[in-house]
Amino acid sequence: MMGRKQILIIISFIFFCVSSRAKEVTDTLVSSMRDRVIVTYDITQYNGQVTIKFIDAKKKLGRAYQDKFRKLDEVTVVFFDRIGNYEDQIEFSGINTNAFMIPKEVKYKASKDGYFLLNDNPTLFLELKSGENTELSIPIFIAHYEGKRRYMVFSRCEDLKIILSKKKSAKMSDETSTQTVSQTVTTQEEIGGSLGEYDKEEVAKNLINSIEEGLSSFEISTSVQRNAERLNTLWPEIKDSHVKKQCEDILRRYDIAMNLKKDSELEKENLELEKKKEEEVIKIIDYAQGVLAKDDDTDYYLSDLRATSQKLQMESSTVKDEVLKEKIKQMSDKCDQKVVEIEKKKEQHNLWMIIGGVILAVVGFIGNKAFQIYNNKKEQEKILKMQDDIAKRAESEAKRRARNMAQKQTQQTQGEVKQKTNYVVNKGVGKTGKNGKGKKEISI
């Protein structure tokens, strides 16, 4: 048998190892569609330097997506530290995603990729600026790989909440630290085979008493769970039938208590989820009432009405309260009715616009013809007037020429008459002179 001094040395060495190791945490996250994600991660915190390494992410889809995504190896769990411009031309479609927010007390350098697939076991490196505890809240999404570097995000779970502290993660309460050390010693000794048969039975009895106390207090703490795991590992090696039967009995009771606890926690989670869902639905109903109160007929308003109605119909299938479900149905029907009314008004408006356009075209055509006829008539009148003016001018010109001609002929006749008269007179005077008769003046 190993001496007491050697056991103390092993305990001290393992305590040192435990105080510097990472703390493994498992958290169960549930979506509104009953999808479940069990995230396991290691968190190491020392002097403000925090390392979070994601180990595993188990998935269980709810009824809404079980048939649609049968191959779970194509379903992945993802979170983001930025939105858009992802590395390697990766595309995420589906529901809207958002990145986790960095508290002001935390220093974080953004990743190159912009996204983290938990199946790839990513690691986050953070630095705390202050000594106060800070909560890091990471939105968790479930996505389906569509091929060709494309993922379709179809569900969002509860946020993964991680408490960050500048203190060492191993510096828990004294009770927890002591329990962890003793459990680790037992496990190491079991593996190494350094315990004798009597020592194994004593360790098993101590573990049985510890589990019994936990079950009697109706509180299955982390230490009780770890003790049960140790006992489950140890009991096959125990040869004493009485101690072995005690191990089996306590482990059976522990399994029953754990199942009851899980059922209770699941029922509590379901109640909380239903309450949250009802609160969300009430908010959607209030929003729908505000939308219905508006007097608008724009395309944006119409699309908002349609989206609100679809959202109400989707939420109706997830609500169990019949009164709330009936209220959702009434509000959805009102939205659909208003959509129909607005579309009918738009159709009537468009019809009258078409009729008005046709009437305007006909009036324009008739007006154009009338204007052409008026212009043609005016042009004809103008041409007739010009012809009349030309005729009048020609007549005036003819009259003037005739008058001038008459005057000219009159003057010419008068000149000829005067010339002939002078000739006759002159001729008569000449004859009188030859006959010796005196001259006789003739005046005209």
Oligomer: single chain
How is the largest sheet built, in terms of strand order?
A: 1-2-3-8-6
Q: Which of globular, elongated, flat, extended, rod-shaped describes the shape?
A: rod-shaped
Strand/helix succession? HEEEHEEEEEEEEEHHHHHH
Please work out how many helical segments DSSP would assign.
Answer: 8
What amount of the residues lies in strands?
15-25%
Give an overview in words:
By secondary structure, the protein is of the alpha+beta class. It contains eight helices and twelve strands.
Produce a short descriptive summary:
Helix content is 58%, strand content 17%.
Q: What secondary-structure arrangement, pairings included, does this model have?
A:
Layout: H1 4-20, E1 23-30, E2 36-46, E3 49-60, H2 63-66, E4 75-80, E5 91-94, E6 106-108, E7 115-117, E8 123-128, E9 134-138, E10 141-147, E11 150-156, E12 160-164, H3 174-192, H4 197-216, H5 222-234, H6 241-293, H7 299-316, H8 322-434
Parallel strand pairs: 5-11
Antiparallel strand pairs: 1-2, 2-3, 3-8, 4-7, 4-10, 6-8, 9-12, 10-11
Helix pairs in contact: 1-3, 3-5, 4-5, 4-6, 6-7, 6-8, 7-8
